[in-house]
Write a structure and sequence with these properties.
With about 400 residues, the protein is mostly helical. The chain is built from 18 helices and five strands.
Length: about 400
């Protein structure tokens, strides 16, 4: 009888292949018919530009002159998708070049790795390789399936429009909301509860009781290092919504980084806090200060900017704060216009350039802001000449004449 040390290979348990090995083996079978699958990446292929450069080099080295489409993943995608053991812990983005239909056919030419699927992101997006998971009749994953939960939360946290001035998320179904609330039932682990809390509060969904229990767990686990928890902004938002007094202790403890959250829940107390941050020299809070001032006191962007400019000048803050105020003014009127006209990001850039021209001659603004506007107008004069007259008109948020 063979001893354990001399057992034949047939009797030895074969080691389980990692996800990376399984996916790589499938990947190496792809190619042909005008399609090329680049070898898995090294660290030097760090961006999409590097991937296209690698494709050009490989085609030249192989003497391929016919039109050829290609697919690859780069090192950033690799690090995001695989852990050190080669287990897939997130989507693997497969980038490509050439003809989208050829790439789609090439990636589907060989049956995908067992247990995985490839989703087509369309002519403007990447293909996405991920594990196959299962949902129930309501579209909900098994809470014990980490990949299913990850995919479910990823879909919930995908904004309706990534280029919109403010991100919005689709409403939850009653079953989805109940599933998320169930994950926050006591007792819960704060780290595990984080993404459930984020998905709920992005829709103003955390209840007062949930916010209270999250607050206790946050303070217990992070003590004086509150900013280390990734969901503190969402929890602060919920506490402010519910009028929880401890929200202001958090604002005092964390300081100016809370300005963006305070901006989302306008109140006189929030305005006073953000104003204090700005006048103390934190120029990054000027955008939130202008937004809160407009929400509570003066909706007209120019008149609001004039009021803030007077305070900044009187407090002898650095000149850079006025630059931030000018940027906040342009961002504010551009956001107003995009919200009313539903214009896209690129049209917003053109509108901002046109606003600079108009603000440079608006005598309501102090001289310092008009000078900043004139400088911006010079920088973007070609953009204004080419596209300004073609922008959609909006009576409510038209820049000043």
């Amino acid at each position: 009888m063979n001893s354990p040390d001399t057992a034949s290979p047939a009797h030895r348990a074969e080691p389980r292949r990692s996800d990376l090995a399984t996916i790589t083996a499938w990947w190496r079978e792809l190619g042909g018919d005008g399609f090329l699958a680049l070898p898995p990446p090294r660290r030097s292929r760090y961006t999409q530009s590097d991937g296209h450069a690698d494709a050009a080099e490989l085609l030249a080295r192989q003497g391929i002159t016919d039109p050829t489409s290609f697919a690859y993943w780069h090192w950033q995608s690799h690090q995001h998708a695989f852990d050190r053991s080669g287990a897939l812990t997130g989507e693997l983005l497969l980038h490509w070049g050439g003809d989208h239909s050829v790439v789609a056919a090439g990636l589907g030419a060989v049956e995908g790795p067992t247990g995985f699927r490839v989703a087509d992101g369309g002519p403007r997006g990447a293909f996405r390789l991920d594990r196959v998971t299962h949902r129930d009749e309501a579209g909900l994953p098994d809470p014990a399936d980490p990949d299913g939960v990850r995919q479910f939360l990823g879909a919930l946290d995908d904004p309706l429009n990534r280029s919109a001035p403010f991100l919005q998320y689709r409403p939850l179904t009653p079953a989805e909301a109940d599933w998320l609330h169930d994950r926050l039932s006591a007792p819960f682990d704060l780290a595990a509860a984080t993404r459930f809390a984020v998905s709920l509060e992005r829709r103003d969904g955390l209840t007062p009781d949930e916010a209270e229990r999250l607050l206790r767990a946050w303070r217990l686990e992070h003590g004086e290092r509150l900013a280390e928890w990734g969901a503190w902004r969402e929890l602060l938002h919920a506490l402010l919504r519910h009028g929880h007094e401890e929200a202001w202790e958090i604002v005092a403890a964390l300081g100016s980084p809370t300005a963006g959250v305070l901006r989302q829940v306008p109140s006189e107390r929030a305005l006073a806090a953000v104003r204090g941050f700005a006048l103390a020299g934190d120029r990054g809070t000027v955008h939130a200060w202008l937004a809160l001032h407009r929400s509570l006191h003066e909706s007209d962007a120019v008149r609001a900017a004039v009021a803030l400019a007077a305070e900044l000048t009187a407090s002898d803050t650095p000149a850079s704060a006025l630059r931030e105020l000018y940027d906040a003014l342009v961002a504010g009127v551009t956001t107003d216009w995009r919200r009313e006209t539903r214009a896209d990001h690129h049209a917003g850039l053109r509108y901002a350039a046109l606003s600079a021209v108009r603000f440079s001659t608006d005598e309501r603004l102090p001289h310092a802001l008009r000078v900043l506007a004139a400088g911006a107008a010079v920088d973007h004069v070609d953009l204004v000449r080419r596209f300004g007259p073609a922008l959609p008109r909006s009576s409510a948020s038209r820049p000043p004449r």
